Amino acid sequence: MRIFVTGASGWIGSAVIPELLSAGHHVLGLARSDAAAESVARLGAEAHRGDLGDLDSLRAGAAAADGVIHLGYSHDFTQMEAAARTDLAVIDAIGTALEGTERPFVVAAGVLGLAPGRVATEQDVPDPAGHPRNAGVRTAMGYATRGVRVSSVRFAPTVHGPGDHGFIAILVGIAREKGVSAYIDDGGNRWPAVHRLDAANLVRLAVDAAPAGAALHATAEEGVPTREIAEAIGRGLGLPVVSIPAEQAGEHFGWMGRIFGGDAAASSSATQRLLGWNPTHPGLIADLEAGYYFKK
């Protein structure tokens, strides 16, 4: 198939492209700049110039493809509402272009906030009020009744691996700055995690075979206790590991405190059964022990 990918040069997208190519697909990757276009080309894909605000370009890319993977998103936490509005417009533009074709449309989502205090499953439905992005995912899933084989891949908050600049890298930076590696209260709250290459494999399986309306969980590890994460960071940096009371989490971690203090365990059992997904790459603690998160 010819697959159109938004976010093609990003952290997950740049792993998805080789995964798709290895399965025999042709990839058309959205590129908003010359640097992004060069990155997409180096990976072996064809660059399609445009960005998430260029709906005509998105419609053209979707119309020229046999399927679409939508990974692009603005993760600026100071502009969450604006990012969600853009995402909704993107999803509607692509969904309309695919309507009635029965072509696959894979949409990225997340598991954070899905079922606080218990293990979330693929059957859980995101609360529209939980995160502005949920409205776009809900709209996307509506295209399952409009002749589109749409599915959502809910990613763990930590998609780790060499080169990661996400939440774990941020926690490492905070620990280095503060001189201690901290967790909140008893550190028993859990973070699901997935290696970047396992996540890419699931995205490819989704575009190949996920049924319309499927919600899939990219969580190779159901939930790693945050205390274990802090301890691994402490070992890697040679720093003491301490507990921070919840009321002081904002002062110590900044905006990251609210996220790191959440309990977001999420199972992927149904996803693994449905698509035969079998995560094989190192887990989060093993990746931390490998040392590359601590190299400046």
Automatic annotation (TrEMBL):
UniProt xrefs under InterPro entries: Epimerase_deHydtase (IPR001509), NAD(P)-bd_dom_sf (IPR036291), NAD(P)-dependent_oxidoreduct (IPR051783)
GO MF term list = aldehyde dehydrogenase (NAD+) activity
* Record-level GO cellular component terms: cytoplasm
Domain of life, per lineage: Bacteria
Concerning SUPFAM superfamilies, the annotation shows:
NAD(P)-binding Rossmann-fold domains (SSF51735)
Ranges for domain NAD-dependent epimerase/dehydratase come to: 3-209
- The signal peptide here is none
Q: Which PANTHER family does the record match to this protein?
A: NAD(P)-BINDING DOMAIN-CONTAINING PROTEIN-RELATED (PTHR48079:SF6), PROTEIN YEEZ (PTHR48079)
Which protein is depicted?
Answer: Nucleoside-diphosphate-sugar epimerase
Organism of this sequence: Allocatelliglobosispora scoriae
